[in-house]
UniProtKB/TrEMBL annotation:
Enzyme Commission code(s) on record: 1.2.4.2
Cofactor: thiamine diphosphate
Keywords, comma-separated and alphabetical: Oxidoreductase, Thiamine pyrophosphate
Positions of the Transketolase-like pyrimidine-binding domain: 595-792
GO biological process: one example: tricarboxylic acid cycle
CDD domains: TPP_E1_OGDC_like
GO MF annotations in UniProt: oxoglutarate dehydrogenase (succinyl-transferring) activity; thiamine pyrophosphate binding
Protein name per Swiss-Prot or TrEMBL: 2-oxoglutarate dehydrogenase E1 component
Gene for this chain: sucA
Protein's organism: Paraburkholderia lacunae
Family matches, as NCBIfam families: 2oxo_dh_E1, PRK09404.1, PRK12270.1
Main function: E1 component of the 2-oxoglutarate dehydrogenase (OGDH) complex which catalyzes the decarboxylation of 2-oxoglutarate, the first step in the conversion of 2-oxoglutarate to succinyl-CoA and CO(2).
Pfam family for this entry, one: 2-oxogl_dehyd_N
Source domain of life: Bacteria
């Protein structure tokens, strides 16, 4: 920071003790000093420090030093004390003015390209607010706390510098940052440059070329495909300049890959002019030539792409992620992709840049934005900082005024939650856009934090091209109608600066149009074929490391792994309950007791890790497990603080093992599941799992499930092997702790888009997870995991079951022929209810009833069930029994399947609770009565 030589101050030296003496007296009793001194010290106490913090009770030396700096002028000889105090008060006022510009200067900035509303004056930015008069404008004051100059300057010059810096076409908010180093960085960068970018002729020509391309594509599509929706970028063409600079300038700072997520508006423009999608491929979509390439496909402004953008440092990889009309839900997906891509590159988080492009109404209105921002600095989900770009078209999503869509002053105020600096920039000034972009990249590179850039622009057409916006926004669209467009404005600026001629400008327009015409002509001559680049993330990007088909591990390996993961270093002092768990697991490893659920799951992870396959598990309480069954992370009771003093047995499976990651997630379902989905589409060779605290809570992530997990492959050809673990079961704990809404997943099942399973033994879970990790067909796996079965004495397995078995879609009994001939009723069920039926049958001593567990509900194991039913020659009834209400659970799904299997004279029946509005009774007594009713009907009647 620029500091003064205090020897030039007339207060330095002999006067300093006098200042300190006055301050001592003031601290003891303010009334003991003169009114002038008291007024000065009062003012000084209330003025923010250089770093933006409140000074509070200032220590003596800093007070003296600050007084010297504030009162310092050229040597004044024998000034009176009153003169000194008067000047000091004015210097304090100047400091307050400087602080005001830094804090709220952007509210007077020239940010609106339309200028359709009168600016609202900010009193704090007027010198008179601080009793600084017109006569003071020629008085020189210290600028020691600024980066404008090493010399004193007149108040008039200072105000001009502050206005240029904080009230131009680029405004900055950074005083909310807690770190003084970060605040000081912004002051230095903004004030030393007057918030301007240093651009040469080549830079300016490149801006013009990008604006020409942005405008040219929109006009071309508007003329050729009249009336078709495209969610035009017109009015916000500077977004292309911004993104181009993000990628190119980011590459100079070590960014190898940029991952973009954005909504509809301007998406087609970004696909072609930033990501590199061939215009011919876009024209194919407008012409309807690509409808047969995927089972479902999607509209063109939902699609993604991966390409290379040429930069001065070489080609830079750019990905635009696919996303549905739930616009902001792509944000955590982008974060997951970025985290995974950074791991693949192995160059740290800074090598991959996540870019989230928001609408002004969406960033302030969609809760997923806050949830995603909350991931930014966490251990399990951080990506080294995100650049958030807000395309503010000043209309919200359709026809709303700002007061209808948010309560905050700026739409970007949500970002202050994570202390992200915020830059507001006028879209009509592309050079200011470049300045903002470079500042954002530099800040992220240094501080590894997110930055927000609000691009204030407008929307030339309505919400889409068939809309009529001036019905509801007549004044705004009167201004829009008279706006020539940012390309025209910038071209005129460059012509005036003699950077280009008018003929050069027209040549840019002509050349881009010819490029599009050539693409159109070339496409008409060649056959349509699937674009290999259409998938926005190349599958198996991490190398496709020799995936093996499923096979159970050898017995000796199973025992070895079991012993390894149950060994705990002696220096770790475990909680007594955890110590008991680990002792029991050691006995399981030694074959002294059967394996419970937690051990079976750990063995699945260990066997995969030993084969070099990474395992990533996240969710609320996933380290310990919601039901205290997992204990993947062991805490030393004497020294476990914030991750220190912990031991992870699965980190110690073998020397060359895969990476094990288990994370207690933030309290979010939507953002975390979407993150894991994004992570999984990159890390195809890893087992990626998300666990709900209770299966019911996955409701909060329904948008992710509906639009990504169930349909991503059909719509976009984008494959994910993410696994969802959803605790499920009626335990008398009331609604919201009973049902993972199994019926919803089954309703989504079609075209073999996912697997839905409800395993009932540790061995089944072991084989299911291993199969999910190693089979080549990548589909999401939905697992209804147990609660009471975690410790059920019969829900156990042996080491041999792990070593020799496989996952069975159904688990059936194996009666002798004689026993099978006595059976006239077969009860099909899934999950915990099997053990309740089994116990009831034993008590009733019914040998005419056989039980079949359906462990995989989709794809439905029709052949296996049909084969089992053929065992029973005297079968009269086939019952589907479930613990969920009739309108929930599996019944409505399996009924149609079973009707094709059950043959006369046998009849298909449903036994279970009747349809209900809630998932479970709120009273345990009601739960017990309901359970008794269906068990009686299934076994006793």
């Amino acid at each position: 920071m620029m500091m003064r030589n205090r020897n030039t101050s007339f207060l330095f030296g002999g006067n300093a003790p006098y200042v300190e003496e006055q301050y001592e007296a003031y601290l003891a009793d303010p009334n003991t000093v003169s009114e002038e001194w008291r007024g000065y010290f009062d003012a000084l106490q209330g003025v923010p420090a250089v770093d933006g913090s409140d000074t509070g009770d200032v220590a003596h030396a800093p007070v003296v030093s600050r007084f010297v700096e504030l009162a310092r002028q050229t040597r004044t000889g024998g000034r009176s004390e009153n003169d000194v105090l008067s000047f000091a008060r004015k210097q304090v006022a100047v400091q307050a003015l400087i602080s005001a510009y830094r804090m709220v200067g952007t509210r007077n900035a020239h940010l609106d390209p339309l200028r359709w509303t009168a600016p609202v004056p900010v009193p704090e930015l007027n010198p008179s607010y601080y009793d600084l008069s017109h006569a003071d404008m020629n008085t020189k004051f210290s600028m020691a706390d600024t980066y404008f100059s090493d010399e004193d300057a007149t108040l008039g010059d200072l105000v001009q510098a502050l206005t240029e810096t904080y009230c131009g076409t680029l405004g900055a908010e950074f005083t909310h940052l807690a770190d003084p180093n970060q605040r000081n960085w912004w002051q230095m960068r903004l004030e030393s440059s007057r918030s301007k970018a240093t651009l040469d002729t080549g830079d300016k020509l490149h801006i013009l070329e990008r604006l020409t391309a942005a405008e040219g594509l929109e006009k071309y599509l508007h003329a050729r495909y009249v009336g078709q929706k495209r969610f035009s970028l017109e009015g916000g063409e500077s977004l292309i300049v911004l993104l181009d600079e993000l990628v190119a300038y980011g590459a100079t700072k070590g960014v190898k890959s940029s991952i973009l997520g954005m909504a509809h508006r301007g998406r087609l423009n970004v696909l072609v002019n930033i990501v590199g999608k061939p215009p011919a491929a876009l024209f194919d979509e407008f012409d309807g030539k690509t409808a047969n390439l995927l089972p479902a496909g999607d509209v063109k402004y939902h699609k993604g792409f991966t390409g290379l953008l040429p930069t001065a440092t070489g080609p830079a990889e750019v990905t635009l992620a696919f996303n549905p009309s739930h616009l902001e839900i792509v944000n955590p997906v982008v974060q997951g992709i970025a985290r995974a891509r950074a791991e693949v590159l192995g160059q740290g988080a800074s090598a991959v840049l996540p870019v989230e492009i928001h609408g002004d109404a969406a960033i302030s209105g969609q809760g997923i934005v806050m949830e995603t921002m909350n991931l930014s600095n966490t251990r399990g989900y951080g990506t080294g900082g995100t650049i958030h770009v807000v395309v503010n078209n000043q209309v919200g999503f359709t026809t709303s005024h700002p007061e209808d869509v948010r309560s905050s002053f700026y739409c970007t105020d949500i970002a202050k939650m994570i202390e992200a600096p915020i830059l507001h920039v006028n879209g009509d000034d592309p050079e200011a856009v470049i300045a903002a972009t470079r500042l954002a990249i530099d800040f992220r590179a240094i501080f590894k934090k997110s930055v927000v850039i609000e691009l204030v622009c407008f929307r030339r057409h309505g919400h889409q091209e068939q809309d009529t916006p001036n019905i509801t926004q007549p004044l705004m669209y009167r201004s829009v109608a008279g706006h020539p467009g940012v390309r025209t404005l910038y071209a005129k600026k460059l012509v005036d600066e003699r950077v280009v001629t008018a003929e050069d400008v027209e040549k840019y327009v002509h050349d881009y149009r010819e490029r599009l015409d050539a693409a159109q002509t070339a496409e008409e001559k060649k056959p349509v074929h699937k674009q290999s680049e259409e998938v926005s993330w190349p599958q198996l990007l991490d190398g496709n490391v020799g995936r093996v088909y499923y096979a159970a591990p050898l017995p000796d390996l199973v025992q070895k792994l079991a012993l390894r993961i149950t060994s705990v270093p002696e220096q770790y002092s475990l909680h007594p309950l955890v110590g008991k768990v680990m002792t029991a697991r050691r006995e399981m490893a030694e074959g002294k007791r059967p394996l419970d659920w937690g051990m079976g799951e750990h063995m699945a992870f260990a066997s995969l890790l030993s084969a070099g396959i990474d395992v990533r598990l996240s969710g609320q309480d996933s380290e310990r497990g919601t039901f205290s069954h997992r204990h993947a992370v062991l805490h030393d009771q004497k020294r476990s603080i914030r991750g220190e003093g912990t031991y992870v047995p699965l980190d110690n499976v073998s020397d060359d093992q895969g990476r094990f990651s288990v994370t207690n997630s933030v309290l979010s379902e939507a953002a975390v599941l979407a993150f894991e989905y994004g992570y999984s589409i990159v890390r195809q060779n890893s087992l990626v799992l998300w666990e709900a605290q209770f299966g019911d809570f996955a409701n909060g992530a329904q948008v992710v499930i509906d639009n990504f997990l169930s349909a991503g492959a059909a719509k976009w050809g984008q494959h994910s092997g993410v696994t969802m673990l959803l605790p499920h079961g009626q335990e008398g704990e009331g609604p919201e702790h009973a049902s993972a809404r199994l019926e919803r997943y089954l309703q989504l099942c079609a075209q073999e888009n996912m697997r839905v399973c409800q395993p009932t033994t540790p061995a089944q879970m072991f084989h299911l997870l291993r199969m999910q990790a190693v089979l080549p067909d990548r589909v999401p796996l939905i697992v209804m995991t147990p609660k009471s079965l975690l410790r059920h004495p019969e829900a156990v397995s042996s080491l041999e079951d792990l070593a020799k078995g496989r996952f069975n879609e159904i688990l059936a009994e194996s009666p002798t022929k004689e026993a099978a001939s006595r059976v006239d009723r077969v009860i099909l069920c899934s999950g915990k209810v099997y053990f309740e039926l089994l116990e009831r049958r034993r008590k009733a001593k019914k040998d005419n009833i056989a039980l079949i567990r359906v462990e995989q509900l989709y794809p439905f194991p029709a052949k296996q069930i049909s084969s089992e039913l053929e065992r029973y020659p005297n079968l009269k009834s086939v019952v589907w029994c479930q613990e969920e209400s009739k309108n929930q659970g599996s019944w409505n799904f399996v009924m149609e399947q079973l009707l094709e299997i059950v043959k006369t004279p046998a009849a298909l029946r449903y036994i279970g609770p009747e349809a209900t509005a809630s998932t479970a009774p709120g009273y345990r007594s009601m739960h017990v009565a309901r359970q008794e009713t269906y068990l009686h009907a299934a076994i006793d009647e």
